[in-house]
Design brief:
By secondary structure, this protein is α/β, with parallel strands linked by helices. It has a single domain, classed as Rossmann fold. 39% of the residues lie in helices and 24% in strands. It contains six helices and seven strands. The protein has a seven-stranded mixed β-sheet with strand order 2-3-4-1-5-7-6, sandwiched between helices. Helix 1 (21-33) crosses helix 5 (152-174) and helix 2 runs parallel beside helix 3. The radius of gyration is 15 Å and the shape is globular.
Length: 186
């Protein structure tokens, strides 16, 4: 079993913002495999399915970004799922737009959703897919930037970015995270 947690903010005003790219990736995966992310559980919305014989859980915390770890901890405690099967999918300012980077440990790097995850999970060691949104121009407020919508040019590239992320998610269902990291970080 793998449980993928996409980070984002609830509400229509945030649907297509940079901070919600993790949710967009989960939605793309869910659409491909007919998984409905509609069950309200553990301070989030959950969808469950079976992909090529592997149980998959998709979780969107509904706590707002800064409290994402509350939902992850609630899910982990209630369902007794191991942290080794967790993959967090989220936006990353330090990864160029359109690229993904996989990691299995590290600091929050200023990302409040990851900071909350580390706090509530009690470790910095968990699998991650960082989806690049690049940094804003100098002088542009970071909070305003991550809560802004993608440009038309960026949005036009979104299908291939989401497909690449889904491909990485699929790969880790059949291969160890390290092999997936080697393939998708290269």
């Amino acid at each position: 079993m793998k449980w993928f947690v996409g980070l984002g903010n609830p509400g229509v005003q945030y649907e297509t913002t940079r901070h919600n790219i993790g949710w967009l990736a989960l939605d793309r995966f869910a659409d491909k495999y007919g998984i409905k992310i509609t069950q309200s559980k553990c301070k989030g919305l959950v969808g469950e399915g079976n992909v090529n014989g592997e149980k998959v859980v998709l979780l969107k915390p509904m706590t707002f970004m800064n409290l994402s770890g509350e939902s992850m901890r609630a899910y982990m405690d209630f369902y007794k799922v191991p942290i080794e099967d967790l993959v967090v999918v989220y936006d990353d300012l330090d990864t160029p737009f359109g690229q993904i980077r996989l990691r299995y440990q590290g600091s929050a790097g200023g990302h409040n959703g990851i900071k909350s995850a580390i706090q509530h999970l009690g470790t910095q060691t968990f699998n991650r897919i960082r989806m690049g949104i690049s940094r804003p121009a100098p002088g542009f407020d970071i909070a305003d930037y991550v809560l802004s919508r993608f440009t038309k040019e960026e949005f036009a590239k979104m299908p291939q970015i989401l497909d690449r992320t889904v491909e990485a998610m699929e790969h880790m269902l059949k291969e160890p995270f390290e092999k997936t990291m080697a393939r998708f970080n290269g």
